[in-house]
Amino acid sequence: MNIEDLTPGQESERRAGIGIIGCADIAVRRAIPAIRKSPFDLVAVASRSLAKAESVAAGTGCAAVEGYEALLRMPGVDAVYVPLPNSEHAEWARRALEAGKHVLIEKPAVQSAGTARGLVELAEERGLLVMENFAFLRHPQHDRAQDLLAEGAIGELRSFNGVFGIPPTDPNGIKYQAELGGGALWEVGCYPVRAAQEYLGEATEVLGAALEFDAKQGVDVSGVALLRDGAGVTANCSFGLSHSYRSTYDLWGSEGRLTLEWAFTPSRDARPVLRLEQRDRETRIIAPASDQFLGVFGAFHAAIRDASARPAHHRELVRQAGLMARIRTHAG
């Protein structure tokens, strides 16, 4: 029985079942603990290695499965989370949709608008949801920023400036492998680009973009993109894999500026600071602690239950993929 066929009475009796395709670190550290607190029932974890799947599944009460296709054939799996290398997202999202599963793809979901549209069309044909996991959007600090902007705390928005950089890690890791979809733009640049879209209008164009490549590693290790919407609001997005850690964005308006000091990857227990500057006054606003991964699985579950919530997620997936592809093309 597919989850979309459940009646309201049945929904209260049966938790939606979810499986995880791949045993990436993000799945182990953040996704599994969040799923176990969410409305989902964690049914299974799949890996190409049974031993690895068993190691990850140990202590969770879920099944360990060898092979991704085997998980897709399991009864009770209504949805899947796909934290595979970027280059494998499109294929396994498609296979999962064809198997009748709702799909949450770890960011960046796919690398072209055409691929994103293809997945959305398949999902809509089958009455399913496909969604990209930008967990940071589920942290309440971003809702507070939107509220302050709507209240006129900084006047009219003029520009967005977002920065996400991390120190170098293992050079043999996935993020440094071009054939697996690695590189700074896809790994960290997607964060400020996605955040900018919360504030810029639909008609966003790429004014400029540049990527710095490491010839030895064969991937881009830093970059910048300049965007502008139809109303003239601009966004400057900077990112890198060879930087001291920085995870922030600010909104500069006609009457002030609002800065989110830990915008993208706050820990579950952290209380991020929003700094509001207005003329000769500065106000520090402390956001509540929140598990943003629990928030994203809650949103995923809600959109599975409520089909009217799915089109917004589908539009966001296509828009992000298209904008990221245009940035990559502009950078050359």
Task: Write a structural description.
- One of its GO terms (molecular function) is oxidoreductase activity.
- This is Gfo/Idh/MocA family oxidoreductase.
- Belongs to the Gfo/Idh/MocA family.
- Keywords: Oxidoreductase.
- Residues 144-258 form the GFO/IDH/MocA-like oxidoreductase domain.
- The chain is α/β, with parallel strands linked by helices and 332 residues long.
- The protein folds into two domains: 3-135, 3-Layer(aba) Sandwich (Rossmann fold); 140-289, Dihydrodipicolinate Reductase, domain 2, CATH 3.30.360.
- 34% of the residues lie in helices and 27% in strands.
- It has helices at residues 8-13, 25-35, 50-57, 68-72, 89-98, 113-125, 140-150, 184-196, 292-305, 310-331; strands at 17-21, 41-47, 63-66, 79-82, 102-106, 130-133, 157-165, 205-214, 219-228, 234-240, 246-253, 257-260, 273-278, 281-286.
- The strands form two sheets. It has an eight-stranded mixed β-sheet with strand order 8-9-10-7-11-12-13-14, covered by helices on one side. The protein has a six-stranded parallel β-sheet with strand order 3-2-1-4-5-6, with helices on both faces.
- A hairpin with a 2-residue loop joins β13 (273-278) and β14.
- α2 packs across α9 (292-305) and α6 (113-125) runs antiparallel to α10 (310-331).
- The longest helix has 22 residues, at 310-331.
- The protein is globular and about 60 Å long.
- The N and C termini lie far apart (48 Å).
- Residues 1-13 have low confidence and may be disordered.
